[in-house]
Specification:
10 helices, sugar transmembrane transporter activity, transmembrane helix
């Protein structure tokens, strides 16, 4: 593929990635609905929401440094969605904000803020993909994926694969490497649904 073709392909992949990413942000509603139904977060992991809040905010910061309009638009929407999700988590929200402020302060004071901002965004992006595994002990203990957020994991797989392709096209290491890792991780998580079926979904069908 020549340079001209690649450049023409970039906005297409970017817009498709943005579309699916915004849909994936809405998948966080699955956790919020479960919390609302049970009136408690005791047996529901809110880690994906907290990780998403920190991750999208850091990616927004990085996109401003590298002046990437596609990532800016995507993460403005993402940061807004996840902020609304975690507003009711109180103490957990305070923890997320404290972590975020600390990371932003450290990267801002560094000699190369864009590099460290990209590095932190990459790390938290991978952590966001790993966050559903906060319930992994229960999955193996109960041999059920009932506590895993299926739609978040599925959307993560699709989205990270698209952003990996985008990262390859613009040749941005901070975009392609973490998204390559994340797509593999979320793919492995999807396999858990084949190994340990969601018993609650089966009961619902019956």
């Amino acid at each position: 593929m020549n340079m001209v073709s690649e450049l023409n392909f970039v906005p297409i992949i970017a817009n498709v990635a943005i579309f699916f990413t915004i849909i994936s942000f809405l998948s966080g509603l699955e956790i919020c609905v479960n919390v609302w139904k049970k009136r408690s977060t005791n047996d529901i992991s809110c880690v994906p929401l907290l990780a998403g809040f920190i991750s999208t905010t850091l990616w927004l910061r990085y996109s401003l440094y590298v002046n990437d309009i596609f990532m800016m638009v995507c993460n403005v929407v993402g940061a807004t969605c996840f902020t609304s999700y975690v507003m009711g988590l109180n103490r957990k929200l305070c923890f997320a904000i404290t972590t975020l402020v600390t990371v932003v302060f450290i990267t801002k004071k560094s000699e190369n803020p864009s590099y460290y901002s990209g590095l932190c965004a990459s790390l938290f992006g991978v952590l966001f993909t790993l966050s559903p595994l906060a319930s992994i002990v229960d999955v193996f203990k109960n041999r059920s994926t009932a506590k895993l957020p299926f739609y978040i994991i599925l959307s993560s797989f699709v989205v990270t694969l698209l952003w990996f392709i985008y990262g390859m096209l613009i040749n941005d290491t901070f975009v392609k490497v973490p998204n390559a890792l994340s797509s593999v991780i979320s793919g492995c998580q999807l396999l858990l649904f084949l190994i340990f079926p969601n018993t609650s979904m089966k009961k619902g069908k019956n």
